[in-house]
Design a protein that fits this description.
Elements lengths: L2 E2 L2 E2 L3 E2 L5 E3 L8 E7 L10 H6 L11 H4 L8 E3 L5 E3 L5 E3 L6 E2 L2 E2 L5 E7 L8 H17 L8 E3 H4 L13 H7 L12
Parallel strand pairs: 3-7, 5-11, 5-12, 6-11
Antiparallel strand pairs: 1-2, 4-8, 6-7, 9-10
Length: 190
């Protein structure tokens, strides 16, 4: 797995129109973990992909009318089976964080990479998702060296009170145990 020109070579490329230029491409320094499922709590529908590309059929489900006017995207989406779709180049600003702040700095979209996991706050994520997320995280950290362990966070942490994902079902300890240090050894548990 490698990144070339802002794209992950193992991901399916489905370009979203919902992105913009970063103020500083040398400032990619935060990784944000999210969750999404459309309709809520349903998996494998293809609706997340259509939503990120502004192609969601609002007649398909009543919930879709409530999000029809939103224009959002993430850089990556990891499905329950581990399949990865990329919507926005890492070198561009995806619209995933909204109003947000990390360590006193606003507008996290400007300097972050957003990864959406197919899921909900309360349903356990799959083994395939944890494995893929860990491998992808290592690839991203090798390419974007400013993303350190301390600069990996959840949407709930950068938008408290407004967002709750990836939620209590996400096992941060398990995820961090799967990550490796720069020399290839597993991280020490914290």
């Amino acid at each position: 797995m490698k990144i070339t020109n802002g794209r992950l070579d193992t991901a399916l490329w489905v370009p979203s129109p919902n992105f913009g230029p970063r103020p500083d491409t040398d400032d990619i320094s935060l990784l944000v973990i999210h969750n999404i499922s459309l309709p809520p709590g349903q998996y494998g529908s293809g609706c997340v992909q259509r939503f990120f590309c502004n192609q969601l059929d609002t007649a398909q489900h009543p919930y879709f009318e409530t999000i029809a006017d939103l224009q959002v995207s993430s850089h990556l989406f990891i499905e329950r089976d581990g399949a990865i779709t990329q919507f926005v180049s890492f070198d561009d600003r995806a619209w995933h964080a909204g109003q947000s702040q990390f360590c006193g700095r606003d507008n996290c979209n400007d300097y972050s990479i957003g990864i959406e996991l197919e899921g909900t706050d309360t349903e356990p994520y799959t083994d395939a998702q944890y494995q893929q997320l860990a491998v992808v995280t290592e690839c991203i950290r090798q390419h974007y060296r400013k993303i350190t362990d301390e600069r990996i966070t959840g949407h709930e942490d950068i938008a408290p009170g407004r967002k709750t994902d990836p939620g209590p079902a996400f096992d941060w300890t398990r995820y961090r145990a799967l990550l490796v240090t720069a020399d290839g050894r597993p991280e020490e548990k914290k």
